[in-house]
Amino acid sequence: MRFIVLVACLLAFAYANEEADVLKEFSEVNAEDFKYALELSNSIKAQQEGHLEADKENWVVKGEYEFDTKDGKHVKVTYTADDHGYHPTVQQ
User: Fold this and answer.
1) How far apart are CA 48 and CA 80, in angstroms?
2) For residues 47 and 63, is the Cβ–Cβ distance under 8 A?
3) Can you spell out the DSSP letters for the chain?
């Protein structure tokens, strides 16, 4: 369930800019794993993949997203999310 919320948040973030065109889009969703990637013309990129652990109860998700701020800085966030929480690393 956690990964669904994370995916929804990232997609909402990416689609928030109505003036951006979708340059690349990929998604593959299976019962025990998923992956997606998105690139927009406004420098927003996002990709994520996850899989269900062997216990069939916990998901492990890895991904990243990047964008340019209004003042021209490039920000990239790489993260993992698992049963211990969300673990981001931000590069500016």
Assistant:
1) 9
2) yes
3) -HHHHHHHHHHHHHHT-TTPPEEEEEEEE-SSEEEEEEEETTS-EEEEEEEE-TTSS-EEEEEEEEEE-TTS-EEEEEEEEETTEEEEEEE-
Residue type present at position 82: D
Task: Write down the domain spans for the chain.
Answer: 20-91
The CA distance from 49 to 75, in Å, is 20
Angle subtended at Cα 85 by Cα 75 and Cα 1, rounded to the nearest 5 degrees: 100
pTM for the model stands at 0.74
In this model, does residue 78 exceed pLDDT 90? yes
